[in-house]
Amino acid sequence: MAGKVKRAFFCSSCGYETPKWLGKCPSCGEWNTITEHVIAKESKSIAAQVASLPRATAQRVQDISEQENRRIDLGNKELNRVLGGGLVPGSLILLGGEPGIGKSTLSLQLALTDNNLSTLYVSGEESAEQIKMRATRIGIHNEECTVYTETLLENIASQIEEQHPDIVIIDSIQTMYTDFVESSAGSVTQIRECAATLLKIAKSSGTAIFIIGHITKDGTIAGPKILEHIVDVVLQFEGDHNNTYRILRGIKNRFGATYEIGVFEMRDNGLRSVENPSEILLSHYEEPLAGIAVGAAVDGIRPYLIEVQALVSGAAYGTPQRSTTGFDQRRLNMLLAVLEKRVGMKMFQKDVFLNFAGGFKIADTGMDLAVVAAIISSYYDRALAEGVCCAGEIGLSGEVRPAPRTEQRISEAARLGFKRIVVSSFVEKSIKRSKGIEVVFISSIEQLPRALFAE
Ligand code: TYD
Ligand code: MG
After folding, report:
1. Would the CB of 272 count as within 6 Å of ligand 1?
2. What percent of the chain has pLDDT over 90?
3. Most exposed: 72, 181, 303, 304, by fewest CB within 10 Å?
4. Ligand 1 center to residue 80 CA distance, Å?
C-alpha cells in the first residue's frame, strides 16, 4: 500500500522549511512567501528506509588514503586557480550568476577544452543546434564532449551511469525536474531534490558535476541560495553587462581557499583568461593626464593595479553632484568631507565623478588613497608624477591606515614597473622592501599631495 502524501511548507525567498503555514518567514522576515509543496508521493517508515540504506564504514583517520584529493587539470588557468589548484573528482560545484553574464559560455568552453577529459554538457535551456552554433564559435578542441538536451533528472542520471564522463555540466538547475517530486521545475523543492540526487551521483561515481544556477541582481531567486549548503564549491560569475570583463569568484570551497578570483574577457569567440589583470586595467598614455591615479588593489588574495579616473568641476547647480561607478557613494562622500576638512579643498562647490577602469567594482578600502589622489589631481588640474601609485585606507581624521596585504601590493607594483608607491607609515617597520620601487610612507592625508607630485 502506498504511504501518505508528504507535504511541507517552504519560503520561496530563502528556502526555510516549516511543518505548518506561517504568514511571515522566521528566517528571512519576508511576508507571504511560505507556500505548500508535496515533498514525496509516498514514503516508507523511517525504520524501513534505514534498513534498506547501504552503510558506510567508520575508519581511523590515519588509515584514510589521501588519493581522494587528486586534482584534475582543467586546461584553463583561471578556472584551476579559483577551484584551488584544479578540480577534485566527485565534487559538486555551483556556478551562479545573473542571466546573460556568460555561465553557459564558460561551462561549454570548459567542456570543449582540450584537457583529455570526457565531458557531458546537459542543457535544458537551448537546443542541440544552438549549442553546436555556440561550440563552433568557441572552437571544438575536445572530441570527447557530448551534448544532451534533457530536463528529466532520472534520464540524466541514467546517461551519466552509461557514459561515465569525467565532468558533467547541468545548464541550468532551474530547468531540471524529477518525477519524484510533484511541484514544477524551478521550485524550491525541485531544486533541492535534484541537487541532492546530483550530489549522490557525484559522490558515488567520482564524476565532477557543475550545476549552473541563475541569480538575479539582488540575489532574490531562492534556488541557488539553498544550494550553497549542499554543494562543495560555490563559484559566482560577476561583471558589468556593458563591459567585457568578468570575474569568477570562489565563495565557498571545501577543498581549498576561497577568495580566489579568476578574470576573463568576453570576446567574439568565447571567454579569454586574463592572467595578468593589471594589463587591461591600466591604460598607457603618451603623457600623464590630470585626474588619473593608480591604486594597488587586492581582490580576495589577488593583487592587481587599477586606474581610477576622477573629474572635479564647478557645480552648475546648488547641490553638487556626486556620481561613481564601481565605488561606494557613501565612502566617496566621506573621503570628500575629509579632504575638505583636512586639506582645505572646497569640495562643497564641486561636482565629482569617479570611474574605475574596466567597469570593475571595488570594495577594497585600500583604494581610498588612489581615489583621493585622482580627485586631488583633477581638482588642481595637475597630472601626478610619472609611475606613482597608492595603497592605503583613509580614516575620518585624515589618518592613513595600512591596507591589508600591503607588502603584496607593493611587490605587484614593483613587478609592473611602478617607480613609487605611497602607503601608510604604520607598516614602515614591519614590511619587507621590494627592489626597484621607492616606498613613501605617510601618516596623514595632508602629506599626500607632496608624495604624489614630487618628481
Ligand atoms: P551566456 O553564456 O548565454 O550567459 P548565461 O548562460 O549566463 O545566461 O552568455 C551570453 C552572452 O555572451 C551573450 O550576450 C552573447 C555573449 N557571447 C559573446 O560575447 N561571445 C561568445 O563567444 C559567446 C558564446 C557569447
Ligand atoms: Mg545560459
Report:
1. no
2. 53
3. 72
4. 21
Answer whether 34 contacts ligand 1 (Cβ < 6 A). no
Instruction: Determine the pLDDT at residue 49.
Output: 55
What pLDDT was estimated at residue 2?
A: 45
Copy the grid coordinates of residue 150.
Answer: 534533457
Torsion of CA 416, 420, 425, 428, to 10 degrees: 70
Return the SS3 of 37: strand
What pLDDT does 223 receive?
A: 60
CB 452 within 8 A of CB 379: no
Q: Name residues whose C-beta falls within 8 Å of residue 130's C-beta, 6 or more positions apart in sequence.
A: none
Q: What is the mean pLDDT of residues 118-127?
A: 95
Pocket test for ligand 1, best of 105, 173, 244, 269 (most atoms within 8 A of CB): 105
Using alpha carbons only, how large is the chain's radius of gyration in Å?
26
Ligand 1: atom nearest CA of 172 is: 6
Q: What is the rounded distance in angstroms from the CA atom of residue 311 to the CA atom of residue 372?
A: 11
Residues with CB under 5 A from ligand 2 (ion): 104
Max CA pair span of the chain:
88
Q: Which three cell numbers stand for residue 143?
A: 572530441
268 lines ligand 1 (CB under 6 A): yes
Rounded Cα gap, residues 112 and 120, in angstroms? 10
- String of DSSP letters for 290-328: TTEEEEEEEETTEEEEEEEEEEEEE-SSSSPPEEESSS-
255 in Cβ contact with 84 (< 8 Å): yes
The kind and range of the H/E element at 408 are helix 406-415
